[in-house]
Design a protein that fits this description.
This protein is α+β, with helices and mostly antiparallel strands. It contains one helix and five strands; from the N terminus they run E-E-E-E-E-H. The strands form two sheets. It has a three-stranded antiparallel beta sheet with strand order 3-4-5, with helices on one face. It has a two-stranded antiparallel ribbon with strand order 1-2. A hairpin with a 4-residue loop joins strand 4 (29-35) and strand 5. The protein is globular and about 35 Å long.
């Protein structure tokens, strides 16, 4: 059950993620994590003093890969 910290008050179980996608606008970038139950978690990318959503995405993908490796041998 790999848990990933996705901000000060959000911890995600990577085994329950359905999709990870990006929304990019004129003046913003958001990481959208959709869970298997349909709940969407939207995180605004705000470096260098706020969230680094690219690092969060990398951590989620690494955790998902680790889960996949464990479940397949």
């Amino acid at each position: 059950m790999p848990m990933v910290q996705c901000g000060a008050d959000v911890i995600v179980n990577s085994a329950h993620i359905s999709t990870i996608e990006w929304e990019r606008g004129h003046s913003f970038t958001m990481l959208i994590i959709t869970m298997q139950d349909g709940r969407a978690i939207r995180l605004k990318h705000q470096p260098p003093y706020g969230l680094d959503c690219y690092a969060i995405e990398a951590a989620l993908l690494e955790a998902a890969k680790a889960t996949d490796i464990r479940s397949h041998g």
